[in-house]
Fold:
Amino acid sequence: MRFEAILFDMDGLLVDSEPVWHEVETELIEACGYRYAEEVRELGVGLRVDEFAAVLQAHYPKLGDSPAAIEHAITERMLQLPAERIQARPGAEAIIRYAVDKDLPRAIASSSSQVIIEHFVGMLGWDAWLPRRYSAEYVPRGKPAPDIYLRAAGQLGIRPERCLALEDSRAGTMAAMAAGMTCFTVPDLSHSTLDDFAHLNPHVFRSLNEALNEMIDKRLFA
Structure:
């Protein structure tokens, strides 16, 4: 099959930010006297920040009097990070440039809030390359529901089955596939392994460069 558009997740896929999110969450949780359990962290990978904030409040009630308060505290800490902490993942710029050079319809479809998306994209200088940036905060359900991918496809005017999505997490992979898209999963090894996706998605790659080579070799875009 050939595709007409490409949709990118952001955190853990294009941006090496998952360890930074984890660090910020850990600092906040430990400041309240808790230990951040790995099983709690795993519950949040790929989720919308407000939905994960509700998970955190359920496990660590002293973090804030509402999920909104916890989300605000996490977001503010992320926005205050020095620029050098936010780095592109290996191969990210190459795969974005491929989409730009072929003039493909393209967008970010992220679980992060719009303010975080704009902040990261601006810091990395990708504003012109990725002018369409969609946050799951504006759809009824976050990943693994398909809502954000359906919205992004709708905004591009491309049928979901003609879109190729790129993801790093289980929640994101499930969201893209539930939207009827083919998904290339490039696991972020800070929280996942390749084996985690063995029974979920047949299209799993070790790197963005490997995924890009597949697109070129198979001529997935006209």
Remarks:
- Residues 18-31 form the longest helix (14 residues).
- Residues 69 and 188 are 28 Å apart (CA to CA).
- The chain is about 45% helix and 10% strand.
